[in-house]
């Protein structure tokens, strides 16, 4: 019988809490990114599958996530990114990227006319995570999502780490309400469950337009 000879420092131990702690320190090209490793991998697969003409990211922060998406669009050689926040904190690499346009008056003031010249559109909702804000953002941007593309709702994981009360139910409550109102979107289990049942920070958050 084989006897395990592993040492203590070879033990594998991690949890949602440890991944959450680590994801706050994730950088891309030196720019703070704050996104889980699971979703970085999933995003690049979706982008290469869809080859979108426009990606809208609601919630820029320092811009590492925007930079990552824009670099992928550069590799694909198609599409631009509109990244939206309520103030400009983004790194110079983000400001100077040829595939990024920044908007700093919040998603509420984003003019949907900005999307009229694009055919394939994908939206990533990563704003306050408060239930009411998330639901209103989903309602606003759902009509512009192209068939077969995604409305991605970030950070439903907050329920798993017992923070839903701080966000009045958070993204998952918004997703449930949104789906009651709108039958055009399904939860894509291919990506939600890619690494295991909802092994993503975007729990039930990969909403695909039928």
Using brief descriptors, characterize the structure shown.
Rossmann fold; 210 residues; 7 helices; 9 strands; two-stranded antiparallel ribbon; 31% helix; alpha/beta
Provide a short characterization of the protein structure:
This protein has 210 residues and is an alpha/beta fold.
Strand and helix layout:
Elements: H1 16-23, E1 27-28, E2 31-32, H2 37-50, E3 54-58, H3 64-76, E4 80-84, H4 92-95, E5 100-103, E6 121-125, H5 131-141, E7 150-153, H6 170-181, E8 185-187, H7 189-192, E9 206-209
Parallel strand pairs: 3-4, 3-6, 4-5, 6-7
Antiparallel strand pairs: 1-2, 7-9, 8-9
Helix pairs in contact: 2-3, 5-6
Mean pLDDT comes to: 95
Uncertain segments are none
Structural class: alpha/beta
Could you tell me how far the N terminus lies from the C terminus, measured between alpha carbons in angstroms?
53 Å
Question: How many domains comprise the coordinates?
Answer: 1
């Amino acid at each position: 019988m084989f006897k395990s000879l592993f040492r203590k420092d070879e033990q594998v131990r991690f949890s949602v809490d440890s991944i959450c702690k680590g994801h706050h320190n994730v950088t891309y090209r030196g720019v703070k990114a704050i996104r889980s490793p699971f979703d970085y991998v999933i995003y690049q697969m979706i982008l290469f599958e869809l080859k979108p003409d426009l990606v809208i990211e609601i919630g820029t922060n320092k811009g590492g996530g925007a930079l990552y998406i824009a670099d992928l669009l550069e590799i694909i050689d198609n599409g631009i990114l509109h990244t939206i926040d309520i103030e400009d904190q983004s790194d110079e690499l983000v400001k100077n990227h040829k595939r990024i346009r920044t908007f700093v008056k919040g998603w509420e003031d984003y003019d949907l006319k900005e999307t009229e010249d694009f055919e394939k559109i994908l939206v990533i909702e990563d704003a306050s995570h408060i239930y009411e804000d998330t639901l209103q953002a989903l309602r606003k941007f759902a009509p512009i999502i192209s068939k077969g593309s995604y409305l991605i709702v970030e950070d439903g994981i907050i329920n798993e780490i017992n923070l839903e009360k701080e966000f009045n139910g958070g993204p998952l409550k918004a997703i449930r309400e949104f789906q009651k109102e709108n039958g055009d979107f399904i939860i894509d289990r291919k990506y939600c469950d890619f690494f295991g049942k909802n092994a993503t920070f975007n729990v039930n958050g990969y909403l695909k337009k039928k």
